[in-house]
Design a protein that fits this description.
The structure holds 2 protein chains of 2 kinds.
Chain A lengths: L1 H7 L4 E10 L2 E11 L4 E5 L6 H8 L7 E6 L2 E3 L4 H7 L1 E4 L11 H9 L5 H14 L15 H13 L5 E5 L7 H16 L3 E6 L2 H7 L2 E6 L2 E6 L6 H9 L19 E10 L9 E9 L3 E5 L6 H9 L10 E3 L2 E2 L5 H6 L2 E4 L14 H9 L4 H4 L8 H15 L15 H13 L5 E5 L7 H16 L3 E5 L3 H7 L2 E6 L2 E2 L3 E2 L5 H8 L7 H7 L1
Parallel strand pairs in A: 3-8, 3-9, 6-7, 7-8, 13-18, 13-19, 16-17, 17-18
Antiparallel strand pairs in A: 1-2, 1-4, 4-5, 9-10, 11-12, 11-14, 14-15, 19-20, 19-21
Chain B lengths: L1 E6 L5 H25 L4 H10 L5 H26 L7 H12 L1 H5 L8 H27 L3 H21 L35 H18 L1 H11 L1 H7 L3 H28 L10 H11 L4 H25 L5 H21 E6 L5 H7 L3
Antiparallel strand pairs in B: 1-2
The chains are: A alpha/beta, B mainly alpha.
Chain lengths: ~525, ~375
C-alpha cells in the first residue's frame, strides 16, 4: 500500500518517517501515513501510543524531530496552528477550548481573529450548521449547552475555515450513541463533498463502520495499515494492544440469600457550587451487597457532583440522604464515611486521588491514615514509614504496578499504572462499599481488564460497588444494573439483561424512560 | 517578542540542592559590584561585612541575638508557606507579641517571681497567635487575600505600639521619652554565657522550636497534612483534611512563634518597649524561610546567614561609612536570587517572537 500511495502522488497528505522525541521517549517513531482526497482515515491506538503527538505535529503545535510532511504533493513545514489552517488543515479537539461565559458566535469570532462582525459570523455559522445537520443557535451561551452541542461549535468553527483535511480527536467520547450516529452522518456527508478526515479513536466498531483506511500505532510506531472494513474488532484490538486481552468474567449475582443494601442514596439534591456546575436533582439509588451498579452518562451531567456528594467531600444537611451499611452518613466527612467501610476512587488521578509530587507510600497514607491508623501511625501521630513502605509494596505487587525506582513520586507513573495503584490502595482495605469514577479512563487494555475484574470480584465477595463511567462497553461488561445520569437526574437502574445500548443511549440524551419505546421508533 | 516560562519536564536534583548556594554566591558578586560602584574597595567591604563579625567572640554573641528572632519567625512561616498560606505579616505579629508579653512587666511590675518570665513568653505567643488569627479568619470567612490583610495589619500593629509607648504605657519618670519602664530582672530573658557576651536564651528557644517543627513536618501526620494541602488542595480534601482548619493552624503557629520572637527580643535585648523594636525581623524572616528551603533545619542556617547581614551592615557603616541600608539591599538581592534560582529549576525561559495577528495566538493556545 505504501508503494502504491507513493506513486499515486495525488494523496492529500503524505507523511513519511515522522519522529518526535521527548527526552528519552520516542513518542512518535518513524510514522508513515497517507490520506487520499475524500477519505476518512482512522488513527488507532491505545492511550499513550502517540496519536496525540502525531496530530499535534500535523496541526503545527509540535515540531517534529525528523521526517517529512507532504501536503498536496508539496513538502511543507507546519510551524504553527495558524500555518496549518492556512494550508487547509482544521482540527476539532477532544477537550474543547470554549469560553463558557460567551455565546457560540462570540467563541467562533475569537478564533477567526479578524474584524468580521458577530452578526455575519452568526448567520454564516447557523447556515453551515443546518446544512450539515448540526443545528446550532449561535446566540446561545456556551455554559448552557450540552457537551454534544459544544462539540458542534468546535466542528462549525473548523468548517468555517473551509479546510481540506479535518482532524477529529476522539469525537465520540463525549457523545451518546444517538449523537454519535448523527455525527457519523455529517462526516459521511463531508466525505461525499471531497473533504478528507483523520479520525482518531480507540472505538473499533465505529472505525469499522466509518473509515476507509486505518493506521494502527503502538508505542509510537506504526504496527500496520489496514482496511478496517476487512478486519474484525478483535483483530483490530490485537493490533492495538499487541496481544489478546483477557476477557472479563462476570459470574452471576447470588440471587438467593440476604443481600442487604450497603449504599443507599435517598432523595439527594445539591445546588450547584459554581455557575457552571450541575445541580443534583432528587437522586435515589441503592446498591446491595454482591452487585455492581453502573452509572452511565455523557460527561458533565453531574457525575462529578454525585461522586463528591457520596464521598463526603461535599456533605449533606440531612444525615439520612446518604446511608452506608445501614447507618446515616450524610453529615459525615470523607474520613467518617471511610470509617464506615466505604472507599472512593475519583476521576482525576493527579491532584485529586493522588498528590502528584508525593511518593507512592505517602499517597497510600492519603486515603488510609484514618482507617488504618493503628498500622500506619505511631504514638504522637508519627508516620511509620516501614509499615507504609510494606503496604505500598504489597499493593504494587498485587496490582502489577510498573514503576521506576523504589518509591517514586505519583507524577512519575504513567496514568494507567497510577490508576492501578490508586484502585489497589482502596481494594487493599477490602471495603464494604466501593465508589469509583471513570475506573479505566486512559488505562491500557490489559490494565483495564485487571481493574474491572478486581471490581467484580470485590462485589462477589460481598461488597457493594458503584461505578460511574462514560464508557458504555465497560459498564455493560461489569455492571449488574445500569442507571443513567442526565442533567443532574438519575434514572432507575435497569438490570443489565434488560438494558441495551439504544435504551441507555436514549436516557443519556435525556429521553424520558416512559417514552423510550416511542423514541426508538422515531429515531 | 515576549518571554515565556515553560515548565521543565524534569528538574535537576543537584541544582535543587545547590540553589541556595548559587543564590548566595550571586548576591555576593552583585554586592561586590554595588560597593565598587559606590567607590569602596569590594574585597575590603566584603571582609568587613561577612568575615570580620565571625572572628570575635562578642560579635558571635551578637549574631546569635540577631539570628534568634529570624529563626523563630522563619520556622513558623515555613508551616504557612508549605501549606500555601501567605502570611506576610509576621512583623506585626512580632510587635503584638511583644506588647502582649509586656503586660506583666509594664502594668504589674511588682509581679516578680519564677513564673514571671514563662508567663510573659506564653502571653507573647498568645498575642502573636491571636493577631495572626485575624487574617486567617478573614480568609476563611470572606475569602480575602491573606497577603494583603496580614501585611496591612503590620502597620496597624506598628502604630498601636507607637501610641502605647507615647500614651498609656509611657514611663512617667522617663523625661517624656516614648518608652515604657525598664523590665525587672525577673522579667528579663537571661544571658547564656554572661562572661563572654550578651547572647540570651532566645537562640536556644529558636533552635528548639526549629527541632520541634522539623520533627512535626517531617515525621508526623500533621506535617503530612500541611504538605498535602499546600501541594494539592483537592487531594487534601479527598484525604479528609480541612483546608479552613489548616489556614487557622498555620497562621496561629506562625503568629505564636513571631509573638514569641517579639517578647524574647523585648525581654532579652531591649528590656523595655520603644516605638521601634525590630529592624524588620518579620520581613527578613520571609527571606530566611525561603533561603532555608522551608525546611526548619535549613532555616536555622539561613537565619544565621541573614543575621550576619544585619551585623555586617552595622560593621560596614561604622568602619567604612556605608549606608546602613546596604544590609537591606543585600537581603533584597538574596530573596530575588533565591526565588529566581528556584523558578529556573522548575521552568526554562523561552523567547517567543510576536505573531502578526492576535487571532493566531488564540489558536496556538489550543494545543
Amino acid at each position: 500500500m505504501e508503494a502504491e500511495s507513493g506513486e499515486r502522488g495525488a494523496a492529500l497528505l503524505d507523511v513519511r518517517g515522522l519522529t518526535k522525541i521527548f527526552g528519552a521517549l520516542k513518542a512518535c517513531d518513524n510514522v508513515d501515513l497517507t490520506i487520499g482526497t475524500g477519505q476518512i482515515h482512522a488513527l488507532l491506538g491505545e492511550n499513550g501510543a502517540g496519536k496525540s503527538t502525531f496530530v499535534k505535529m500535523l496541526f503545527g503545535s509540535l515540531q517534529p524531530n525528523g521526517g517529512e510532511i507532504r501536503w498536496k504533493g508539496r513538502r511543507v513545514a507546519i510551524a504553527s496552528p495558524g500555518e496549518a489552517r492556512r494550508l487547509g488543515i482544521g482540527m476539532v479537539f477532544q477537550h474543547f477550548s470554549l469560553f463558557e461565559a460567551l455565546t457560540a458566535a462570540e467563541n467562533i469570532a475569537l478564533s477567526l481573529g479578524n474584524d468580521t462582525p458577530i452578526a455575519a459570523i452568526a448567520a454564516k455559522a447557523q447556515a453551515l450548521s443546518y446544512s450539515y445537520g448540526l443545528p446550532l443557535d449561535p446566540y446561545s451561551l456556551v455554559g448552557d449547552l450540552s457537551v454534544g452541542e459544544r462539540q458542534r461549535i468546535e466542528i462549525i468553527r473548523c468548517l468555517l475555515q473551509t479546510p481540506d483535511l479535518i482532524i477529529l480527536d476522539e469525537p465520540t467520547s463525549v457523545l451518546t450513541p444517538q449523537e454519535a450516529e448523527k455525527l457519523f452522518e455529517t462526516l459521511e456527508r463531508l466525505r461525499s463533498e471531497g473533504k478528507s478526515i483523520l479520525y482518531i479513536s480507540h472505538r473499533l466498531e465505529e472505525v469499522k463502520r466509518l473509515c476507509d483506511g486505518a493506521t494502527v500505532l503502538r508505542h509510537g510506531r506504526v504496527v500496520g495499515h489496514c482496511d478496517p472494513r476487512q478486519e474484525t474488532a478483535a483483530s483490530l484490538a490485537r493490533m492495538m494492544v499487541g496481544n489478546d486481552v483477557a476477557a472479563v468474567v462476570r459470574p452471576p449475582v447470588d440471587r438467593e440469600g440476604d443481600r442487604p443494601p450497603l449504599l443507599e442514596i435517598r432523595n439527594l439534591s445539591r445546588t450547584p457550587a459554581t455557575p457552571f456546575s450541575i445541580p443534583l436533582r432528587n437522586v435515589d439509588l441503592s446498591v446491595r451487597a454482591g452487585e455492581v451498579v453502573g452509572i452511565a452518562g455523557v460527561a458533565g451531567n453531574g457525575q462529578g457532583e454525585l461522586f463528591e456528594a457520596i464521598s463526603g467531600e461535599a456533605r449533606q444537611d440531612d444525615a439520612g440522604t446518604v446511608r452506608l451499611r445501614g447507618r446515616d452518613a450524610g453529615r459525615l466527612g470523607i474520613s467518617g464515611r471511610r470509617e464506615l467501610g466505604a472507599a472512593f476512587v475519583p476521576e482525576e488521578r493527579l491532584g485529586h486521588g493522588a498528590a502528584p509530587r508525593m511518593t507512592l507510600s505517602e499517597n497510600l497514607l492519603l486515603s488510609r491514615y484514618k482507617t488504618d491508623g493503628k498500622a500506619l501511625l505511631g504514638g504522637l501521630g508519627t508516620i511509620r514509614r516501614s509499615a507504609l513502605a510494606a503496604a505500598a509494596k504489597r499493593i504494587v505487587e498485587r496490582m502489577d504496578v510498573r514503576k521506576s525506582g523504589e518509591d517514586p513520586e505519583a507524577a512519575a507513573l504513567s496514568g494507567g499504572n497510577l490508576q492501578k495503584f490508586i484502585v489497589g490502595r482502596e481494594l487493599d482495605r477490602q471495603p464494604a462499599v466501593m465508589v469509583i469514577n471513570q475506573p479505566t479512563w486512559g488505562v491500557d487494555a490489559g490494565a483495564a481488564a485487571r481493574i474491572r475484574q478486581a471490581l467484580i470480584e470485590l462485589a462477589r465477595n460481598g461488597s457493594a460497588v458503584l461505578v460511574i463511567s462514560q464508557d458504555l462497553d465497560e459498564l455493560f461488561e461489569i455492571s449488574d444494573f445500569i442507571a443513567v445520569m442526565h442533567n443532574g437526574e438519575l434514572s432507575k437502574p435497569l438490570p443489565v439483561a434488560e438494558a441495551s445500548y439504544e435504551k441507555i443511549g436514549l436516557l443519556m440524551g435525556g429521553a424520558a424512560p416512559e417514552g423510550a419505546p416511542h423514541s426508538v421508533e422515531a429515531a | 517578542m515576549r518571554i515565556e516560562l515553560v515548565r521543565r519536564p524534569q528538574h535537576s536534583i543537584l541544582f535543587s540542592a545547590l540553589s541556595p548556594f548559587i543564590a548566595l554566591a550571586l548576591t555576593l558578586v552583585f554586592g561586590a559590584i554595588l560597593f565598587a560602584l559606590l567607590g569602596k574597595n569590594p574585597a575590603a567591604t566584603m571582609y568587613v561585612f561577612f568575615i570580620e563579625p565571625l572572628t570575635q567572640m562578642w560579635s558571635l554573641h551578637e549574631l546569635a541575638l540577631k539570628a534568634a528572632p529570624l529563626i523563630m519567625i522563619g520556622v513558623g512561616l515555613s508551616v504557612c508557606y508549605l501549606s500555601n498560606n501567605w502570611n506576610i505579616g509576621a512583623e506585626g505579629q512580632f510587635t503584638i507579641g511583644a506588647i502582649a508579653g509586656s503586660i506583666l512587666p509594664v502594668v504589674y511590675p511588682q509581679f516578680q517571681n519564677a513564673f514571671t518570665l514563662p508567663l510573659m513568653l506564653l502571653m507573647g505567643m498568645a498575642g502573636g497567635a491571636l493577631y495572626a488569627a485575624i487574617p486567617a479568619f478573614l480568609k476563611v470567612k470572606f475569602n480575602t487575600n491573606e497577603i494583603l490583610t496580614s501585611l496591612m495589619l503590620v502597620y496597624v500593629a506598628g502604630l498601636f505600639l507607637d501610641w502605647m509607648v507615647r500614651g498609656p504605657w509611657r514611663d512617667p519618670q522617663g523625661h517624656g521619652f516614648p518608652q515604657t519602664i525598664q523590665f525587672s530582672d525577673a522579667a528579663t530573658l537571661p544571658e547564656i554565657f554572661p562572661q563572654s557576651g550578651n547572647a540570651n536564651w532566645g537562640i536556644v528557644i529558636a533552635i528548639a522550636a526549629a527541632l520541634v517543627l522539623w520533627f512535626v513536618l517531617g515525621r508526623t501526620l500533621k506535617g503530612f497534612e500541611v504538605k498535602v494541602i499546600g501541594e494539592s488542595p483537592r487531594a487534601g480534601r479527598f484525604a479528609g483534611f480541612s483546608a479552613a482548619r489548616m489556614v487557622f493552624f498555620s497562621f496561629i503557629i506562625s503568629g505564636a512563634l513571631a509573638g514569641l520572637a517579639g517578647i524574647c527580643e523585648v525581654a532579652g535585648n531591649v528590656n523595655q518597649l520603644q516605638p521601634v523594636i525590630s529592624p524588620g525581623y518579620g520581613f527578613t524572616a520571609i527571606i530566611v524561610a525561603f533561603l532555608g528551603r522551608l525546611n526548619p533545619l535549613g532555616i536555622v542556617a539561613a537565619g544565621l546567614v541573614l543575621g550576619l547581614s544585619y551585623l555586617g551592615g552595622e560593621a560596614a557603616q561604622v568602619a567604612l561609612g556605608v549606608s546602613d541600608k546596604a544590609a537591606r539591599v543585600f537581603q533584597g538581592m538574596l530573596l530575588f536570587f533565591v526565588l529566581a534560582s528556584d523558578t529556573l529549576i522548575l521552568y526554562q525561559i523561552r523567547l517567543v517572537r510576536s505573531r502578526k495577528a492576535a487571532g493566531e495566538g488564540a489558536v496556538a493556545g489550543h494545543a
